[in-house]
Design goal:
This protein has five helices and five strands. By secondary structure, the protein is α/β, with parallel strands linked by helices. The chain has a single domain, classed as Rossmann fold.
């Protein structure tokens, strides 16, 4: 997929949750170009053009990052901290989409720069509605700052 096409970068280690998220986003044509990466380390490689993504055009940034917190190798909180602390990525909206309702996780995510924190609903229909509404807001209604 051409990097210019990436609308949503989905960072999620659960294949099942990733498939549900992608299906919900595509259900109402909210997003067609979604890149799913399975862990935080690969996501950082993608965002910063390292590892298997060396040479990637870094000017082509995702419009939105959906980030799970509980992942192997590099946690979602670590990814969030890196994104928020880097002048090349801090303007990319990050929505934490996770199963954790723990107050310390919520507080820490916002402290590290999350733009939104959504707890994944259990049933597919509720999950689909939440993801669809979130995608509509961030991709169609939100006016992000210009990336520099």
């Amino acid at each position: 997929m051409d990097n210019k096409e990436i609308e949503i970068l989905l960072i999620e280690d659960s294949i099942h949750d990733a498939e549900l998220t992608i299906r919900a986003l595509r259900r109402n044509d909210v997003a067609k170009h979604i890149l799913h990466l399975r862990d935080g380390a690969i996501a950082l490689d993608y965002l910063y053009g390292t590892g298997q993504y060396t040479g990637r055009d870094l000017d082509n940034k995702p419009k939105l990052i959906l980030l799970d917190l509980k992942m192997p190798k590099v946690s979602g909180l670590e990814v969030l901290e890196r994104i928020a602390g880097d002048k090349t990525t801090y303007k990319i909206p990050v929505v934490v989409l996770t199963s954790s309702k723990e107050h310390p996780d919520v507080d820490q995510a916002y402290l590290l720069g999350a733009n939104s924190y959504i707890v994944k609903p259990v049933d597919f229909e509720s999950f689909s509605q939440v993801v669809n509404a979130m995608g509509m807001y961030w991709l169609l209604h939100n006016h992000p700052p210009h990336h520099t």
